Amino acid sequence: MSQEKVDRYKQEKVNRKKNMRKQRMMNIVRKSALTLAGLALIGWLGYSAYDTYTANQERAVASVNYDAVNTYLNGLTTAE
Description:
The chain is an all-alpha fold. Helix content is about 80%, strand content about 0%.
């Protein structure tokens, strides 16, 4: 049993650099994914707040005077 522990320790020691590198890479990937998710959440919240703000604002109403067009069309129909 003791020899198995010694062999296992030696094997871990040989692969220690590779395992540490793998752990660092996984930490970087995990942090990157969480950062992207956080940025997406912040962006979505900002967009929702802006959309709610603009929906509550009064919109300017434009009125169009069609008198000139109506007069022109009436002149066309009476000329024929």
